[in-house]
Amino acid sequence: MMLSSITLISWIFFSGCLMQQVEAKCEGTDNLECKSVKKDSCDIPWNKKHCPQLCCNEEDDTADDKDECVDKKIPGYFGKFYTCENFTNARHICEIPVPGKDSMKFGDYCCNTCKGDKECNDVEDFYLNPKKKKSDCKEVAKKKRCKKNFKGVMLSDLCKKSCDMCPTILPTKTPQPTLPEPSFSPSKFPTALPSSPCGDTPNYLYISGKKKKTM
User: Fold this and answer.
1) Is the pLDDT of residue 109 over 70?
2) What percent of the chain has pLDDT over 70?
3) pLDDT of residue 92 exceeding 80
4) I want to staple 31 with a disulfide (CB 3.0 to 4.6 A). Which of 50, 78, 97, 114 is the partner?
């Protein structure tokens, strides 16, 4: 009887220690935006920081792949209509903050896409009205709306090429061959004059002190 009591007390003590560890790991409250966050996205730094209760019980199965660079779903408005593939030819947007996500940038969600060179172009298939596919980047530039803010992002960033915001690359000049400077000092050796042909004029006759050329 005494043994079973000791076992029960030990189990209660162990459970209490375990609960303390869980509580310590889950310390903090979730942000209101965590309601729309899925548990499989807890590896995103913003979600880990602002959703401790949602992500605290997630096993770190990706410990070996913590440095894996993959694309994820973009949150907010832009995630409804665009994926990271839309930024393939416009990687400059990787450095732009995602609206409503504090310090998180598009590059934090599009790691694989953004690891290439920062090309300057329009976001692929961008429209002011994506449902009806109206008002693309050319229309934005034509109506001089590049300096307008669209859903928290400047249109000049979404339509950088059409808005003429890409840096100008000057053409590289081809080096010209360097000619030797003329020398006015006398040369060591005499310069031969160009030779002229020397010979008799064919069918030439001299008659009575007058020159006469016959055919």
Assistant:
1) yes
2) 61
3) yes
4) 50
What per-residue confidence (pLDDT) applies to 24?
Answer: 43
φ and ψ at residue 7, rounded to 5 degrees: -65, -40
The terminus-to-terminus CA distance of the chain in angstroms comes to 154
Cβ atoms < 10 Å from Cβ of 70: 12
Q: Does pTM top 0.70 for this prediction?
A: no
Mean pLDDT confidence for 109-115: 92
DSSP assignment of 143-160, as one string? TT-TTSEETTEEHHHHBT
Token code pair at residue 198: 């020397």
3-state secondary structure of 5: helix
The maximal CA–CA distance of the chain, rounded, in angstroms, is 166
CA dist 132 and 148 (Å) reads: 20
Helix (H, G, I), strand (E, B) or coil at 139: helix
- H or E stretch including 109? helix 106-109
DSSP characters over 19-79: HHHHHHHT-S---GGGGG--GGGTTSHHHHHH-HHHHTT---TTSTTTT---B-PPPHHHH
